[in-house]
## 1
Amino acid sequence: MARGKTAAQLVGGLVLVAALTACGGGTKEPPLDSFTAEEIYKRGEYELEVGNPRKPETAIRYFSEVERLYPYSEWAKRALIMQAFSQHKAKQYEEARGTAQRFIDTYPGDEDAAYAKYLLALSYYDQIDEVGRDQGLTFQALQALRAVIEEYPESEYARSAMLKFDLAFDHLAAKEMEIGRYYLKQGHYTAAINRFRVVVEDFQTTTHTPEALHRLVESYLALGLTDEAQTAGAILGHNFQGSQFYADSFALLKGRGLAPEAKGDNWLSKVYRQVIRGAWL
């Protein structure tokens, strides 16, 4: 949101800084209510971009004061979106969400509403923790990113939201895979299968699908359920024949005198039929 400034604007910012600090020998800032909304706003911009860019908290103060002192001005509207931006930059994610939401509620038809919605989504997305942590924020990020995509499809933020949506979606699949691998390693094959099934059925567009199918081959073979193991191998071969996971599954099946092919009537055979029809990729 904060865009580059021209040389003239930067000079103006320097002059403004001098004005805002020129009191009592230049050691004490005069009361902000003695300046216009524009002057306070530009000081916030200056602090954010030139004066103290690594500490956005200073800019946040100025932007919030614009809104407090001049609540119905055009500068207050600008300051509100910049306050949300600065809070996000300062990693004050909860505050950034609240400020962005206030902008959306107050100015729903404004041209910056799309950006406010995007900032709100980012405040969730940038908090997504390591795979082993709780994934509640990931779900919230997905919902918020979807809102940007659906409500502002023609905006400059929609494409970025789509990319981040895919990454967050992949993150959820990674969580399922991590838990599934743990159960598999512990010999809890049914529990592992339940996790890998979620990836195959609900996260099939992610990068984790080939491994999930391979782990299903391993798990079903361990339980002696050869029809399911062969069918998982067949799906893996149909969609990911060039992957190492398929090579490993093929070797496992061959070692049991089996081949990757659809067998029986189970949930995987239904998936296989969808694959053949092209309805599942």
## 2
Amino acid sequence: MTLVTRRNAIVGASGLLLAGCEKITASPTVRKVLTLGEKATLSGQRLVTDRNALAPEFTRADLSPRFRMNGNRLPASAEYQAHMASNFADWKLEIGGKVARPFSLTLAQLKAAPQRTQITRHDCVEGWSAIGEWTGVPLSLLLRHAQISSTAQYIVFHCADDFSGIPYYESIDLSDAMHPQTILAHTMNRQPLPVGHGAPIRLRVERALGYKHAKYVMRIEAVETLAGIHGGGGGYWEDHSGYQWFAGI
């Protein structure tokens, strides 16, 4: 039996794809396909696959010559602009919510922590893919240091960017959060993460479609439920454009 994932469904509907994640959901048909793919993935992948399995990793010879920038490319907030002007010297990542030890880290402290480097394929909901090299801190390391509560079910990423004043955010469950390939990347292809790709850090959750890979992460929150957080769907695209929450591939 072939497991139908959302990526399979979207690629099959490639004639409907438009340029940019912010435009793809203009088609009601695409929104329906997203929902169908989500149901197949959620009911199938979680039941018949090992969610601890690793996503494929590649070599530097496989790196894509071009890696598109999707979504926002430059947050407009005055706070982010100030951080960018100082090369993120005063920026701090906050970790809190349902944890015993909330804390914050500077970019220098994140880079001094144990690191993981991986070369993986980014699969966009638009139907394109690219291979890049990422270096960053395993999210599991930070959550363990914070002593995440046994009641926490999800990890929410609050970001510096927005769409027409609506804050951007995303979320994953603890299975993906504790996965060894889920990292907060500060380096891309051995260079500091570019602003267009989410500087100073972005989430890499390698077994999920690209819109789950939140950019411009400012704050991480452990929560029991997604209800009451913005639109309650678990992410900006989920709240406003019909994307489904689970995006496993």
## 3
Amino acid sequence: MSSIVKPTTSKNSGLLKRMWDAKILYLILLPGLIHLILFKLLPLFGLVIAFQDYSIFKGILDSKWIGIEHFSKFMSDPYFWKLVRNTLLLAFFNLLFVFPIPIIFALFVNEVRLSAVKRFVQTLSFFPYFISSAVIVSILYKVLSPQGGLVNQMLNLAGFESVFFMADPGWFRPLYVMLNVWQLFGYSAIIYMAAMTSIDPHLYEAADIDGANRFKKIINVTLPSISSTIVVMFILAIGQILTVDLDKILLMYNPSIYDTADVIQSYVYRQAFASDGFPNYSFGAAVGLMQSVIAFVLVMMANKVSKKYSESRLF
């Protein structure tokens, strides 16, 4: 019997010793783990209100259960398809521009030979990520103002009339995507630049021997070497295809652009925190849960496709 117990004890002791040796790393991990539990995992239990006629006075335990009534109400709402259309279009354009531009930028930065210039460009591109959405949208309002804005001044000099960009529904999506590109391209490019540092230098030397120029080395060496990173990031982006930057949208919001600016998340916000009467938390939770389920299905589909056509996948 002792011969069976000893290996298990020894194995557990070895695991505890390795954990103790790496205690600093686990200590660094602890804040992130606490944040994950408190703000990501524990709130999941609150999703039960999506199936209730929730009242803040009665609480979760005493509120009336109504099943999928909120889901049916949302899907039967005539406004439903407009919200889905606006969300998908905004997400599509976001994916079309915000996803590839950091890759292209990282490829160009990787080709810069002067390390001082490379560091300066990286720092300059990374800086917008730390600017809050409120400041970015405020800058946008100033630049595009029909009265004294830089863009309209240039249009006036060219003989055109001033355009009220922020009140034009047709300009909302381009402006939203442009802001996201400017704010995120430097931050997102770090992942691809980090992947490029692991590329074997001998591959570039072999390409030089074959007479490849810089462009051919990018196409035949750099891109294939970081393809697994690109696939994983694309799958993650697919999972967020129904997620938009609500802060930017609410800051850019005004009644004249509701036709293109109103998306599922802004609708959830209005329902959950309605200004007239009591907030409808249950309905907002139901719409949010439906959105998450759709995003999960999209991730599973994208992951399945990646397994079929590539070795890279999330799981």
## 4
Amino acid sequence: MSDTFTVALIQMRCAPDAASNLAKAEAAIAEAAKQGAQIVCLPELFLGPYFCQKEDTATFDMAEPIPGPSSDRLAAAAKKAGVVVVGSIFEKRMPGVYHNTATVYDTDGTLLGLYRKMHIPDDPLYYEKYYFTPGDLGWKVFDTKRGKVGTLVCWDQWYPEAARLTALQGAEVIFYPTAIGWHPKEKAEYGEAQSSAWETSMRAHSIANGTFVAAANRIGYEPPPDGDPKGGLEFWGGSFVSDPFGRMLKKASHDREEIVIVSCSRKLMEDVRRNWPFFRDRRIDAYGGIVRRVVD
């Protein structure tokens, strides 16, 4: 296998209808492949606006099985472009059980498997606990034809345990399909600190685990259900790839649709881990408390 693999992050604005978003994603996958990408990641729940701003039983009608119409289209796009694709789908597992699910397709369109989002938030305008059952597949790494791909999703990005357990399975890159943004009322006071913390958290995962991290976010203002012009969410983009030193290799803007393409070196991973042998020095005999809610 080559020393390098090339990843692409699709940073996009999500239209109200799934058909437009799926067509845009297919075109972006093809364009990324044309620019040399080998592994392409889409944002979280890219098929429509971020629907978790409100709780509405009718929204469950948007969910679909996997395999299903959208996953079949992503599989076909992966095969046509000859790239690995990381998708994100609102999965209907059975009536009453739904997941926020990452899908991974190999270069021949084969669905290698699923990762179901493990950490589910419940914050103002992020009412995900209403919609998503927590994942039950554990931490996943997929041995694709282009590399060992780890997948986590959005809120998972704040948890070092998730990144560590994914890295321990051999992930060469951890992808985070993401939908995160500012509350317009808070942006002036907290906006810079919030986006910086988001970025810093994942760059720290790169360092602690000696691996590449890649976060694909959406952009654009999406209004709230009640129409309040000061409400809603402004998704901050900023999709990026960081290396095993935590260095920012490339970062997208906060407000434009872009394809972020970065070449990643396996040799760099090896060199960093030899000189910073965090895995060697882990005290696995002393970490029992981590599985307790509170150590008291």
